């Protein structure tokens, strides 16, 4: 069958390829510990689940406004007052099917063919493909482990051309956990504003930041320059709600109206039941969010203690999110000369599933998730160390 030419610019998800291989080996009876997951191992808090059940029982099961029920849009706006002391109105919010749809539709709404988008690498797997599907050109801006995998204004100046339309920021980062301070974010945004470059800030991990760092956001810049700054976030990572599909985008109203239009012609509203659950999450108690954050911080410390002892492996400590991104290139050899073959070998020989750094534009590294209990993590890291030959 002849498929659309636009598909030539996309590649299948490397993370899904890892899960497929892990499932195949498990089906053959092999024990595989998956460090490749991108979701919390905790359950969604009970009051959120109860709100969903109540929504069903109250027959809140019909179409809603495409951009979300007004009280939920207002609650998302209130999130920015609560955490960043910034006023965001409900009409500056569109509720989306996860942060993923917010990003996808954003690029559909702001890019023209040939527009360049600066994407710092290592990057979250979907950015380049989303940009390409919108007709844009991903421009990868490499960062170094020595700089904590962060870009600086000079990197933007070097990479920007007359065609640069926007910069993607992701702090805390998937896959590196790199987390910008507010001062660092401010400098990057100022540079973009000077050059007329839009900023799309993916803050999906902003609730998962570890001491001594504190959460930072582009929200304050949205307040002063709403037409240049857009922010996406959601409840997947903070409330352990990956399967519910609840995200949002904050932007100035003409862009929100455009997002609403695209969504109205594609998926319509986010599930009505999920919206009620999300409202309960945003307006209810946050103690479980903090408990999960604290657990991730403890695991981060444990994982870094272990990886820190691996000879020749460089791994900046992740200040946020729940991934470590060690540079394991020293252990590449004739059997496994790159991250894909190394991950395949470690899966087959050590029974540990990791994601090759290739998927994130960083072929010297592998990504491991610490969204698993400490005992399982210890077992997996010991097997990985043995498989690499560091133990
Ligand atoms: C950096 C980043 N952005 C966005 C998303 C999308 O999250 P969701 O669509 O589940 O809300 C993810 C999920 O893994 C992510 O890691």
UniProtKB/TrEMBL annotation:
Keywords: Aminotransferase, Pyridoxal phosphate, Transferase. InterPro entries: Aminotransferase_I/II_large, AspAT/PAT-like, NHTrfase_class1_PyrdxlP-BS, PyrdxlP-dep_Trfase, PyrdxlP-dep_Trfase_major, PyrdxlP-dep_Trfase_small. It comes from the Bacteria. It is an enzyme of class 2 (transferase). GO terms for molecular function: pyridoxal phosphate binding; transaminase activity. Its EC number is 2.6.1.-. The keyword Amino-acid biosynthesis does not apply. Its cofactor is pyridoxal 5'-phosphate. Residues 31-383 form the Aminotransferase class I/classII large domain. GO terms for biological process: amino acid metabolic process. CDD domains: AAT_like. PANTHER family: ASPARTATE AMINOTRANSFERASE (PTHR46383). Belongs to the class-I pyridoxal-phosphate-dependent aminotransferase family. This is Aminotransferase. The lineage of its organism: Bacteria, Pseudomonadati, Thermodesulfobacteriota, Desulfovibrionia, Desulfovibrionales.
């Amino acid at each position: 069958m002849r498929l659309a030419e636009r598909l030539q610019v996309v590649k299948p998800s490397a993370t899904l390829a890892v899960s497929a291989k892990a499932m195949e080996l498990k089906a053959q009876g092999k024990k595989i510990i998956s460090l490749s997951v991108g979701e919390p191992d905790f359950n969604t808090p009970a009051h959120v689940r109860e709100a969903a059940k109540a929504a069903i029982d109250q027959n809140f099961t019909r179409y809603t406004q495409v951009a979300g029920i007004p009280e939920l849009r207002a609650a998302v706006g209130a999130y920015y007052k609560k955490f960043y002391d910034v006023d965001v109105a409900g009409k500056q919010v569109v509720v989306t099917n996860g942060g993923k749809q917010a990003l996808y539709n954003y690029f559909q709404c702001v890019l023209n063919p040939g527009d360049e988008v600066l994407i710092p690498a290592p990057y979250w797997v979907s950015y380049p493909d989303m940009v390409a599907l919108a007709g844009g050109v991903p421009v990868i801006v490499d960062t170094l482990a020595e700089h904590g995998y962060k870009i600086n204004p000079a990197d933007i100046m070097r990479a920007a051309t007359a065609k640069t339309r926007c910069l993607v920021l992701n702090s805390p980062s998937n896959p590196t956990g790199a987390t910008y301070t507010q001062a660092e974010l401010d400098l990057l945004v100022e540079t973009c504003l000077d050059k007329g470059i839009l900023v799309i800030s993916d803050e999906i991990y902003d609730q998962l930041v570890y001491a001594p760092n504190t959460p930072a956001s582009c929200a304050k810049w949205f307040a002063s320059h709403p037409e240049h700054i857009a922010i996406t976030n959601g409840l997947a990572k903070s409330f352990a709600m990956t399967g519910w599909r609840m995200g949002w985008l904050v932007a100035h109203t003409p862009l929100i109206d455009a997002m609403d239009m695209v969504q109205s012609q594609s998926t319509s509203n986010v599930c009505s039941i999920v919206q009620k659950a999300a409202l309960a999450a945003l307006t209810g108690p946050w103690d479980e969010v903090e408990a999960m954050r604290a657990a991730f911080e403890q695991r981060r410390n444990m994982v870094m203690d272990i990886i820190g002892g691996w000879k020749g492996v460089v791994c900046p400590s992740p200040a946020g999110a729940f991934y470590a991104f060690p540079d394991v290139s020293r252990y590449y050899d004739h059997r496994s000369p790159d991250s894909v073959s190394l991950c395949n070998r470690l899966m087959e020989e050590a029974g540990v599933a990791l994601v090759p750094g290739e998927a994130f534009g960083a072929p010297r590294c592998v990504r491991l998730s610490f969204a698993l209990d400490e005992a399982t993590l210890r077992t997996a890291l010991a097997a990985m160390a043995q498989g690499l030959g560091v133990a």
